Every structure is written in structure tokens, then in C-alpha cells.
Amino acid sequence: MDKYLFTPGGNVSPKDFYTEERGFGFITEQVMENVPHLMLPELNGGFMPVPWYRLLEPTQIEQNDCGCIVRRTKTSAENPVQHTNLNGCGTDTASEKPRQTPLRFKCHVNAEGSYRVRVIIRAAEKISDIRIFIGRRTLTAWQKTLLPGETLTCEMYTEVCGIIPRGQEKIYRNLCIEVSVTADSPCLSEIEIEPVQCPVIYIAGDSTVTDQSAEYPYSPETSYAGWGQMLPFYINGEMTVSNHSHSGLTTESFREEGHAAVPFARCKPGDYMLFQFGHNDQKLMHLKAQDGYRANLEAYIAECRGKGVHPLLVTPVARNTWRGSDGQYNDLLQEYADECLEIGRRLSVPVLDLHRLSMELILHLQKENAKRYFYPSDYTHYNDFGAKKMAGMICSEIRRTCTEGAYQWLASQIVEFPDEWPEPAFVEPLQRPEGFTMENESAEWEDPDRPADLLLRAEALDMVIKRAGFFITNVYNDFFTDIIGHEWYAGAVECGLQNGILTGEDCKHKLFRPLEPVTLLDFAVFLMRAYGSRKTLPTVQPCPYDGTVRKDLRSLVSAACQLSVLAADGTDALDEPVSRKQGSDICRKLKIM
Fold it and tell me: How far is the first Cα of the chain from the last one, in angstroms, to the nearest whole number?
């Protein structure tokens, strides 16, 4: 058994930050920057700071007699979660609560497999609204209040398993367990970890199921979440959940992109596998409900049974979609739900009818009230409250449908918790603090410890968009094949496309290459297009670079020379990468707004 003690004299101090060499430690914004793979949401525990947070208020970890703690930040106090009245009029200020900064601890284990994790929190002072996440922001416990002197002990199970991050091609063998605690003042006293042998529930699906990451300072109302990451909350027995769902996946791409190979290579007789697809299948003609969708699900069922694994089908969760013509609910997924039910009847596979239950909830709440359970301005993806409610529906369906044999055993492991979470409110995403200027935001990328690091294409586009005063969008429309929609930079890419800063001609084969270093030419082109959207570009004049750039870019390069973004004498190497400091300096001196 591995044991980590966070109290004075224990084996973990508040200054023990995670490194691969140490093998354990706290995760902060600086740690994520120093360990490159932690920028992948699937490998960082599912929490990402808002872009300006590290610059203004880096996470500070302290220690008291009860353990290590994160104190409430100024940002969380000045950006409370405001519970708007259900009639939409004004704010119920009595319900305001601070946003939360997670306390995150990561440690290595010896091998893939199932683990029992015991987390102990002792309260030196009152702690409120406690959530404990394990792995990729998988909810395992919630406690309303812990009073001074009280102890919260939670025993949970997690699966350590390789995964192919969305947009990647190789399996990452991430032999780590991460525990994250959110609360008004999150604390850790002890963590114990030991390997176990137990059944596993594998999950295959799309963005409505996957382990979504959350921005922090955290609010559950404004965090994307898939129901798969809430499922462990309802499991009372020795069983782990391994979620291999990803944004954008279909019944076809789940296999073609290599994701299916991971659980099918690891699963053992007696395990379970849940399948929920449809949201993306319906966009492709050959994956219609009674065509490729049906054939692919039948193939997965056969493969499960060939390995002694018990398959379950889940009908696609409902969207909050309504017709503008008559105000009636517009069900876009019924034929896929019906096909799941038909396959289940024909092949004797339990079908969890999430589509019916989620649609009944939306119809009961109606369009405006239902928005409380969705990410703001999104009609497909739920927030943490909505995802938890969907997971509860999944479990009620398991108890209803799984009545025989090994399926009956699965139902016996599901516990029905009283729904103690408060009802979600209408909450706006976190706002930029007052006084945080464009100069501050450009400086975000000029890390004093890493000024010479190369500026990535995604970072460069984000920097330019902010310098020009555009707002990052919440929706990404799948233009590029290497950007899925829930990476931290997807909103910047969509904003760049919508405002002409980025075009398809710039990216061969519809690949944006977000994590490659940006060249000076591309950076100048981004910046000049942004400038041209706000001001008039200088009149085109011949310049020394005309013979080395595409004809359609010559006017932008000419403007860059006249505005001192590029050297007017032609001495700049346009294909050279740009450093973080260089990009920051160029943005800061160019007055766009």
C-alpha cells in the first residue's frame, strides 16, 4: 500500500510539486507548463486554469495541523457564482458563492489495473461544498459541509489505463492516479492507494459521455461534463470505470482511430462495456441509424461476447432543441434511440433508455429552465449538474433492465443516492477581472522563466485574438481535422475562422497543427488580418519579401513591414519560429484597439 500524509511531519509538504522524477506531488499551473503532456486534458486530471489565472493568482498551497490546503483566492471572491432567479429577473445575492480553485495531487503507480483509493480530509475550520474527483475529473464523492474537528473518509475505486487523447494517434501509458478536491478551502489529510482485482465498466461514446475538463476557478454550472465521468458516484461496490469516450467520435471512428483497441485489449471475462453513440453518426450518410450505425453496434456486441464481456447499449442523451416555428420540442435523435432498442430486443442486450428519460426531463423543465443543466449557450453538452443527473438516470436504467445473471450483479453494485445537490442556477462563465488590460493578456505568454520557449500556433492565435479585442467563442464547428472542440484552444480557432484571422488556405489538408511552433510569417499574417478587422491596413507597397511569399499574402506582409512587425529591409527569416517573448513584444507594441 502507498500512503501519502499531508500533515506536518508527513511525507508530503506543500512545496512538493509534481515532477516525473519525484513520482508524486501537487499539480499547479507552473507544473503543467513544465510537464508538456499535462497540457492534454486526458492526462492532467481534467482541470485547466483560465488563461489569465496563472499570471494574476497562481495557486498557493499551505499547510496546517490537518493537512495541505488551498486558500480562497481574490479572483474567486470577486467572481462569485451568482444564482439568477428562475424568472430571469435579477440575481439572488444570498445564493452567491465563491468559485473554487482545486487542490490537485498526482502520484505514480507500478502498473495498469484497478486500485482502491482512500481519501481522508480532516477539517481545521469549516469546509463547504466538497467534491472529490479521481482520475480525469471523475466524481466520486460530495459533502455539503465539514465542521471543525470533523473527518471525511471516502473509499473509491479507479482504473489506471492507457488512453489515446483526442487528436493523437498513440496510446499514452499514464501510470498515475490523480486526486482533486474542490471546496471553498479544499484540503487533503491522507491518501492511501492499493491495487485490487475487480470488474471494470468500460465506456465508449462521444462528447456527451467523455471525461470533460473544467476551467478554474471552478463552478459546476459553467463546466462541461459527460455523464461517464459522473457514473462512479453511484457505484457502491468494488468496481472501476474506464471511460474511452471522446468528443466527435462515431461508432466508426471509435474503432478506426484506435480507441476501441484499448479496452478490447485489456478487458477480461466478467467486465462490462457501455456504448452510447448517435450525436455524430447522424452527421454522416453511411452511419444512418439502420445502416452503418446498426452494423457497428452489432459488431461491438459480438466482439464483447467473444471475450466474455457483457455489453450494454445506451440510447443517445437528448439535446435541448426546440423548433422556432411552433416552439415544440425538436427531437433529432429518436431514430437512433429506436434502433438501439430494436438491437437490444433482437440480440438480448440490455438497453439503457437515456434518450427517453433525458427528453422527459427537458420537456418537464421546458427550454429556458432546462438550460440550467447545460453548459451556458450550449444545447448539446451538459454541465456538471446535468451530467450527474444523466448518470443517475443511467443507474436507474441499470436497476430496471439488468435483472438476470451477470447483469443482475451489476445492478446490485449501484446505489441510489438522494439527490442532495442544490438545483443549478443560471450562471455566466467567469469574467475577466477589472483592470486586466490587453497588455496584461499579451504578457501572459511572456513567462519570465521561459522567455525563449517557442510560441505554439494555438498560443499565437489566442494572443492575436485577445490583442485585437475579440471574444473567444464557446462553440467549435469542426473545420480542422486535428481540432475536436473541447481543447483549450478550440474557441480561439473558431473565433479566428469567424473573423477572417485564420483561413483554410493557411492549413494544408485541413490541419491547423495547434501544438507546432508558429513561424514569423504565420504570426505576422494572423496579426495583420486582426489589425485589418479593426483598422485600415496601410496601402500596399513593394517589399523585400514579395518573392518569397504567396501572392495572396503579399499585401499582409507589406503591411507588416510598414507597421514594424517585420523588418522593412528584408532581413527577417520568415520561416523561423517565434519565441514567447518575441511574440509578446510584437503584440504589445502594435496598437490595434
Answer: 58
